[in-house]
Write a structure and sequence with these properties.
The structure is a single chain. The protein is of the alpha/beta class. The protein has one domain: Response regulator (Rossmann fold, 3-Layer(aba) Sandwich), CATH 3.40.50. It contains five helices and five strands, in the order E-H-E-H-E-H-E-H-E-H. The chain has a five-stranded parallel beta sheet with strand order 2-1-3-4-5, with helices on both faces. Helix 1 crosses helix 5.
């Protein structure tokens, strides 16, 4: 089963996203840094990555590129979370766009947006009998 990967260095926002994933019983991995995401990513073929554009240890496009290289993805849909859409975020988005399928979501996130997104890309965990 392939998990959705969520990466955000804002612990409150990461907790909100994982709560929606848990409520929906979706298989997922959550990381609070780019390096942690790369460590956790080994061996998975993610159907979707939800990432912060400005992580403390690397930019969102740098992480995305490393995920593509490390797991030999041909296509990896990404949802980029934007705050104010300042010049720095615009630069990262402009570097992300040519690399693949990019969707932008503005903060604060709405639960309905996440539920819709996860239902389209996520795989539910198997229920135990």
């Amino acid at each position: 089963m392939d998990p959705i990967l969520v990466v955000n260095d804002d612990s409150k926002l990461l907790a909100e996203m994982t709560a929606v994933l848990n409520e929906g019983n979706y298989f997922h991995l959550a990381a609070s840094s780019g390096e942690q995401a790369l460590t956790m990513a080994s061996g998975y073929d993610f159907p979707l990555v939800v990432l912060d554009l400005d992580l403390t240890d690397m930019s969102g496009d740098e992480l995305y590129e490393k995920l593509l290289q490390s797991e030999s993805h041909y296509s990896l849909p990404v949802v980029a979370l934007v705050d104010s859409f300042d010049a720095k975020e615009v630069e990262v988005v402009n570097r992300l766009l040519p690399k693949g399928q990019v969707t932008l979501l503005s903060k604060p996130l709405k639960k309905e947006w996440l539920e819709d997104l996860f239902s389209r890309y996520g795989q539910k965990k198997r229920s135990s009998p």
